[in-house]
Design goal:
Elements (H helix, E strand, L loop, with lengths): L4 H16 L8 H30 L3 E5 L9 H8 L2 H10 L4 H6 L10 H15 L4 E6 L7 E5 L2 E5 L11 E3 L5 E5 L2 E6 L5 E6 L2 E13 L6 E10 L11 H10 L14 H24 L7 H4 E6 L6 H12 L4 H11 E4 L10 E3 H7 L1 H29 L3 E2 L2 E3 H7 L3 E4 L2 H11 L1 H6 L4 E3 L6 H7 L2 H11 L20 H26 L8 E6 L8 H17 L8 E6 L7 H18 L8 E6 L4 H7 L5 E4 L11 H7 L3 E4 L5 H8 L5 E2 L4 H10 L4 H6 L2 H8 L10 H11 L8 H20 L1 H13 L6 H13 L11
Parallel strand pairs: 1-2, 1-11, 2-10, 11-12, 12-16, 16-17, 18-19, 18-21, 19-20, 21-22, 22-23
Antiparallel strand pairs: 3-4, 5-9, 6-9, 7-8, 9-10, 13-15, 14-15
The structure holds ligand 26V.
Amino acid sequence: MTLTTNIFKKEFKKVFESQHASNIKDSSSEQQYAALANFIKFYSSDNWKQTNQLYIDEQVKQVYYFSMEFLPGRMLKSNLLNLGILDTVRDGITEMGLDFDAIVQSEVDPALGNGGLGRLASCFMDSIASLAIPGNGNGIRYRYGLFQQRFVDGYQVELPDNWLRNGNIWEVRKENKAVMIRFGGEVYLKEDGENKLRPIYSNTQNILAVPYDTGMIGYENDVVNNLRLWSAEIPPEEEINFKTSAERVLVNQITEVLYPDDSNYEGQLLRLRQEYFFTSAGIQSIIRFFKKQQLPWSEFPNKIAIHVNDTHPALCIPELMRILLDEEGLSWEKAWDITKKSISYTNHTIMQEAMEKWPVHMVQELIPRIYQIIEAINQRHIDKKIPLYGEELTYRTTIISDGNIKMANLAIIGSHSVNGVAQLHTDILKEEILHDFYEMYPSKFNNKTNGITQRRWLHLANEKLTQLIDTKIGKEWKTSPAELRQFKAYSKDEETLNLLSDIKLENKKRFAAYAKEKYAIELDPTALFDVQIKRLHAYKRQLLNALHILDRYLKIKDDPKIELQPRVFIFGAKAAPSYIYAKQIIKFINALAELVNNDPDVGNKIKIVFVENYGVSLAELIIPAADISEQISLAGKEASGTSNMKLMLNGALTMATLDGANIEIKDLVGEDNIFLFGMTNDEVNRMNREGHYSSKTVLKNNPRLNRILECLINGTIPDIEVEGRVIYDSLVQYNDEYYVLQDFESFVAAQERADILYQDKPLWNQKALINIASSGPFSADFTIMRYAEEIWNVKERPTKDKV
Ligand code: 26V
């Protein structure tokens, strides 16, 4: 059935009235949203059912993407887009006298992830469905998402994110698919009648894992895949065994809240519970599904690919082994072969402090049988590798050492593929961080540079730009992103460049209106909009950005008449609640904003907007308005970055160190269309090796920088006595771990080049256009095609339309 506006209006009215028993005209936008989301769910339900049935009937190989985090963003508009009914529905809603944008805004944005890793998982879900790849997400249905951030006197304050307050229309609770997870107790091996050892469990605590499924709608291809998020509950038949309220609390705690840290590993028992809970649930449901097909176990790796997103789901390995050995009675060799062939692993960080390791005693107590299996995997690894590689190398690669279980080592040994997320990152893994493993298993290592979905990050976030591109090169880029390169043909076309610049201005006005309403700050939309949006972390160097602003401020104070390119500096960043230094940087930037924004000498030359509660929805507002994309991490530290890709796709020029995917951006756009600065990874390594770096010496030779740093401690910036001192000391006394001062001069020089270029509007616009036209290779569609072909060995399916 093709949906016309008239049919839509009739159907929508029906849904609304059956739900609310009242007139639409008198309803709130929340109620209208609920009805519209229900309409979409109903509209796509046949496809959801049929996709699932097709996978069963044809026994196709399926991927299961295990991730502790998913950051899908609001789903209403993207579902309408992918169903091909966005315009029809928008027109219908408008004709009914309702406010479509208000309806869209009243959906909550589920923050079930911290940052890059979680958002990548959701971009991947969109691409997997849009490529008609049989794929499933597997994760946790947190009751509370990532904290909501507020600023009080410039300090970050965290509030709970009760995202389920008004229910969640997209999900379907599947009680009949629940599985039991066993924690604790004792386990011993006992011989069964057939000379086989079987584990006997006693005194375990059993917890029910109930799945909530959400349809992942492919782009105009009738595919609806499944995202399955698990929730912990007390099993009804065990109610009686949960005598104490403390035990009850514990069960509810498991899926209560997302850990708000993405860089600092802490050996928290609750987090280990979460990890085992959702991996065990996911693996059990896969096994259940596989067994229904009545195939021999040797077929398992031909039908199932299990992807482990960072090490958080690495317990998939011993859990799959446990089920194959204990419950299905396979031999160790067979089970191990199946496990390795099925599982693949992506590494997302080289930051040592984020590497997961669990104390042996904790794993032993919480999941005793899993511990036994990990121990056996470890022992077999040692026995097998010592004859081949000697003791020294082998012992450097063990899973268990110093009383800890190293999850990365488990993930590498128990999988057939290990990938990094940008070329440089993969090279660093191979040559430095995981070099010992690379010696052992060179063929496991491969690169899969990250990607983003152009449908959300261009089509939905920047509809005006989408229209311009559509009229110039057609619409094919939505499914064949390489087509974007056709847009290059317009890089000297005056009319197109002017339109591009008009669109950017409009997007900047839209952001300015938000800033005015929310923060009562007046922005000049013709100023250069300079954007840094990402988690707050020392290695990402928001501090370098802030010191550059301070430099500009001092220039203005020295000469209030100085001609400077007006800039609006936009920050969006959450700091982990326990990461004190990151929170001090937030306070510093907010204090600087307070000073600069209210200084009449400064006027429009500098405005600073630090948005509260940065997340997917705010990204969709900010990215289309950006002129400059700040990607200024210390070289070697940012595994890939993905905001760099989104900003480029929307015509921002990148201010970059040669780090992560910035290098690949540079290769695609050419050095003339990017602002590069700072040390390279090799230079950083050399500095580290030689150990000669002295931030004090840098300061001594740079009076300007010295003066800037003095402002942190001399009262120039009000109300940062504590923070200013801490930051100053980190740079001076503690020798500037992330080489902020070392890279400062070349950063400022690159910013000056940007100012000059911005004066030449046609040339700037041309470079913006080249950035847009060069960003096709960063579509997650390509990334997913490579995963599908080179790691998962799954096929895109021809869709009905294409057949
Ligand atoms: C690590 C940890 C450590 C223990 C506490 C909880 C926790 C939660 C998440 C993580 C993973 C952080 C890694 C991460 O998000 N990496 C980012 O991944 C992006 C997608 O690959 C990539 O673009 C970013 O460069 C990288 O920082």
